[in-house]
Amino acid sequence: MSTMIYLIYLTAVSTLSLPVLLFQAFVWSKGKYERSVVPISESLQSELFQLCKTVRHGFPYRPSSMAFDPVQKILAVGTQTGSLRLFGRAGVECYCQHESGAAVIQLQFLVNEGALVSALADDTIHLWNLRQKIPAILHSLKFNRERITYCHLPFQSKWLYVGTERGNIHIVNVESFSLSGYVIMWNKAIELSTKTHPGPVVHISDNPMDEGKLLIGFECGVVVLWDLKSKKADCRYSYDEAIHSIAWHHEGKQFVCSHSDGTLTTWNIRTPAKPVLTVTPHGKQPKDGKKPEPCKPILKVEYKTTRAGDPFMVLSGGLSYDTVGRRACLTVMHGKSTTVLEMDFPIVDFLTLCETPYPNDFQEPYAVVVLLQRDLVVIDLGQIGYPLFESPYPLNIHESPVTCCEYFADCPSELIPALYSVGSRQKRQGYSKKEWPISGGNWGQGTQSYPEIIITGHADGSVKFWDASALMLQVLYKLKTAKVFEKARCKEEKADAVDEDPLAIQTLFWCPDSRMLCVAGVSAHLIVYRFSKQEVTADVVQLLEVRMLSERSGVDAPDPGGDQTPTAPPPSTPQDGDAPPAPPAGCSEGARDPVLQVRSSALKQSPGYQVELVIQLLWVSGEPPQQVTSLALNSSYGLVVFGNSEGLAVVDYFQKTLILSMSVSELHVPAELRSPRKSQHPSGALCDSNEGTNNLDDRCKSPTSGPTSPCNSDDEPKQKFIEKDAKDGSFSRSRSSSVTSIDRESPEVLSSFHFCETLPRKWDGGLSPCLMVGASQGSVMMLSLTLPPAGDQRLLQPVSLACCGSLNRLRGGILTMALLDSTGALLPPPFEPWCDPSASDEEKEKLRRRRPASPPAPQGGQDAQFAVLCSDKQVKVVSMATQSCVHKHSITEASFVLRADVVHVAGASCVACFCANGHIMAFSLPSLRPLLDVNYLPLTDMRIARTFCFSNQGQALYLTSPTEIQRISYIQETCDNLQEMLSELFTPVDTPEAPNRGFFKGLFGGGAQSLDREDLFGEVAAGKASRSLAQHIPGPGGMEGMKGAASGVVGDLARARVALDERGQKLGELEERTAAMMSSAESFSKHAHDMMLKYKDKKWYQL
């Protein structure tokens, strides 16, 4: 068989309209070179790429306010960063952002109108249109002279009451967002004899039975019942303690106030002299009848009535001061029972959900929504014990801080059902049997049909799998790595080694096809997991201890045979020692103990991911092991490779043995060029750790390593970037070696690995298993793998590796590597398809046959391979046959790349990059033509750098806050179809009928009294407000809202509907009263006629 050698050079690239790469291939055949031209067509064009945000998942970061639409059943949450999150049924979520970024202090729905009013801390109020899939602001009003403290929008009204810090109340027309000339001044509301200012307005509400009476609460403890028609105060109620909130009884005769001393006062509107009832729910009642001891403030109270039983009173706060350290509580008072519900986090706000939106009817509460600082819970009031509803939203992403994240789009279709089946057994019990009460909105009509999975690693050692298909997010399965280790840990001795939680996940590698998972933790430990649907019990956890070579110490490194101490002994190898070596000088036995101790007892493992092998790095020369900076696993080869600043190690997880431990400098030197004493095995693949007996000066150095580096100019900005991250106290590790290893004088760090089948050396005629190794100073090295035959021999014969030297060198640290075939298509690493261990031999054999075949040997120049090498500065395409650079492109000069991935988009492959200056870029393969360059997100937090990741089909994500995941798309098709894919918040729903007031109330006027607010607050009656008081700002969503609404006239319809409701309600009430009078007249006429018939034939003296 003749040997063929390929010399491939890039000669030309045609116009961008039809990009075709022409390669000249010189083939050595029959004693002479033959030239052949290999064209590679590229289908990706810049027109196919566009960047847009898609959806945001997770819990709203730093929440501040909340509102609920009882008809549409939509929940809105505002945050201190100016963002809005809207929730409906499972899968219906929406994110909006105020441009100013000011905190949202209050939210008010225009009930069943598809609109929302938000009040911000910068004294602006905004009207949001929710009738379009991406809500937009229609109007804004900026107050110039007064600070907004409280807002109130009555049901089915277009007039918004705005209370201010000065104690005044202004009225805003929500249709035009213009101020009315009607103003309630604080000095007219309080008594003239009062010498002090009452403080800010803390509450505004109208009487449920009389819209013409407005209840105003001032912070000092004064409450005023204001008559809107007569423009004067009807009654004033005064209490010694400050007021935090007020709640009405639905009949409008009583209201309840919560105070700063933990008391609740109940007032009758007819007796303002003193409250009819004063209680301290959590205060100790003295025996002598004195006033109870003061408690913490009751921040909010709600009073809800029922037809068939006692009313509910729900309040937050009010605990006694002697409950130091007690968690925040929500108190539910129902009849004679008082239930205290402890919360995991401080309470921000709560709302009681009721059956009716009308305030003048029995409320019939059925649930309480509690907004906590880091969670959202809904309590079922209809069941004994008040159980929680099971939340359908992915609000527990931050259950433990996220330390790493990976995104897999277009993965095997059977993965999500498999993960869901094992994850469904992990669900908690004890939830309410009822359906989730926040059930508004409709799902989008998405066109994406491929499965998507997100994996998050957390600080407590847990790993979560999420179903991210169709712009939704749902947890599938949770893996707890802490089960592998003993619970008792010696924190005193190990605090210096690991600053964070010792179980925190550093990085992870997942193979979707084989379902193999490997995680690396901050305590220099790795765990290999295998997926199984059967429950197993491991008597002993398989453990392999590894001592990495240390070039910095200059101390003799012990033989690796002593480091390999698996619980199940592997097959004997020539380098196995009879006994472990003594610890080096200056290293005590205690110092050699790992940070985490693997459990010695049996481990029961549920269906799902089960431990295959635990790898722990040991102390060397009294120094703790360096954290793992890169990791890769190959299920076809049965190998795990990991590296850090000390070198790399390759572990055979089939045989549970270490097959290679090598320093970084030794990787640069091919095996055949090493001195005899440094290669003790014929293959040169297994390097003894006693090579460390040579001094550091005697070690082989990279021929390209010199005192200077072309990237030294970037060290200063990177160092500042790392210092900022250290001050923030966040996890400082990233896949970017340029971020983790800045100091060029420090040892070179291994930053990337890639298993493949390619040409390990120049001029090789056949493909073989290889390992590509990337380092932080731009070097790319090759290792050749020699694997035993499959079957039983694979478990008995050792795997050997041989160093093949450097493949190429780039500026900056290597981030990612990939392999292309002769057509430019991406070549995935070999893998072993997943097979259930309990499956029959026939099923296993069928799966093996379906395994993708290895790439064939080069034939005729058509099967040439190209390596894609990307660093934090540049990207190269290298011919594997000649190991020469075919094409290269400089990504950035002033900044550096944080994350790079070779992804599959629109039937082709490209390189996607995210830079520290905020640019997101894409380059075609193999020509490296720029396809996308957008200045999207300037890097302000290491969290973004640590979690940003690209995936196939033009998808990407990052952790935008400690509690939220932001997903983006960088292809045109997704951006064009985004409107169809997003969910709808507003759905047409009929407003419930108003409560029936009964015959006598309608006849004698005992029902609710309506008010024509237009006659009071309109420009004709009240005049115009001062222009300097507030400034109207038209919203950018005005036209967009009209386009997004049905028929383009939704605003007119909404205004007409409100006007009809305002005026039609009064006409309806008059019609009902007229009908009642007619019925009464008919009844009177009938009785009179009957009496006349009874007495018409009798004389007067017979009566």
UniProtKB/TrEMBL annotation:
Pfam families: Lgl_C, LLGL, WD40. It is found in: Cell membrane; Cytoplasm. Belongs to the WD repeat L(2)GL family. Residues 702-712 have a biased composition (Polar residues). Residues 1038-1098 form the V-SNARE coiled-coil homology domain. GO terms for biological process: exocytosis; protein transport. Residues 552-591, 673-743, 837-863 are annotated as: Disordered. Residues 715-730 have a biased composition (Basic and acidic residues). PROSITE patterns: V_SNARE (PS50892), WD_REPEATS_2 (PS50082). WD repeats lie at residues 236-271. The chain crosses the membrane at residues 7-28. This is Syntaxin-binding protein 5-like. Its main location: membrane.
